[in-house]
Specification:
The structure is a homotrimer of 139-residue chains.
Chain A (H helix, E strand, L loop, with lengths): L1 E10 L5 E4 L1 H11 L4 E7 L4 E6 L3 H14 L18 H10 L2 E7 L2 E2 L6 E6 L5 E10 L1
Antiparallel strand pairs in A: 1-8, 2-7, 3-5, 3-8, 4-7, 5-6
């Protein structure tokens, strides 16, 4: 069994954003030389997500509005977590809806995707450097 | 390390449905001959889910009503995504709640499940052919 | 490829609770001797979750209040599932928001975590013995 590990770094200037990281994950796969196996791609921070969906800006606006409805940022005092001095209580909730990680099959040296699948980094508490882990195991 | 790959195909006549795919995933496992490892089962389409829960029709009705409350199909104009000509904006949201994939342990040649765990395909935008990927790695 | 399997048992006296299981998962990893690979940690019951987030009690209170808003326990008659004689319809919904499982990279014999990542067992229908599965594969 072979394994490969790489961190992807982000510094999103806005509080929230969705970034297509499929090219970077694909680069990791090519660098790994692994042809059959599984790739784990996970946010290393607990106010961010990695998820798979459509690369369509209207949909990303829909996610933004919907998550803000399910777990609004304001008023920040509604979250006990913010008593610690943080203002990111909502980000911890939004990330649970969108998920921490994806696992992708590797087949014939490629990300084994359906027709529209793309991998996104979901930032819910930006303005600082944060990481995504890519771990690939296989042969 | 051995690996196995198979696609399961669906053509759900209704817009939404939950289908128990545990027997098909189990068939894949038997066909693979793998006895220790992990199975990834994921929707290959971004308006569908694979998840694990109870095989109980009342619960499935509860999921249907709850998801429709969290992310209603109508009015379709509420989603920017639908400006692309689609009417499935809600399906992209519902799928995030239910999840894209499950990873199941393989132990002694069996899906290593708790007492009530069953794998379901969740369709949120039916009426056309869609796929689920089963990828198993191990020995 | 090596594999390791262990069940963690819980008997939560309250209906709902969040329990930090990072030390137990770490013990499993040390016992396995695996240094490169992946660990799957999943609830074996369908009214419980395994998820990764912050070990901060205020945040856990926020999760509790938020999940109760998204899928209230009362009135129990609102869920068709409860016609089976159960009163845990809400628990099946809450678990979908928080997720069944996490997959964690294993690197140099350690759980390959970001700065604040901790693994939690989320109980939504306590008062009886329930299990979490830890499955590790690698070398």
């Amino acid at each position: 069994m072979r394994s490969f590990r790489k961190e992807l770094w982000f510094n999103v200037p806005t509080r929230r954003a969705f970034i297509n990281i499929t090219p970077q994950v694909n680069d990791c796969l090519q660098e790994s030389g692994i042809r059959e196996g599984m790739a784990l791609v996970n946010a290393m921070h607990i106010t961010a997500s990695v998820f798979i969906n459509d690369n369509e800006p209207g949909l990303h606006d829909d996610y933004e509005a919907w998550l803000e409805k399910l777990a609004p940022h304001e008023p920040v005092a509604q979250y006990k977590h913010n008593r610690t001095g943080e203002d990111n209580g909502d980000a911890h909730l939004k990330r649970q809806v969108m998920g921490r990680e994806v696992v992708v099959a590797i087949t014939n040296g490629k990300l084994d995707f359906g027709p529209w699948e793309q991998i996104f980094y979901g930032e819910f508490d930006g303005g600082r450097r944060k990481r995504v882990l890519v771990k690939i195991i296989g042969e």
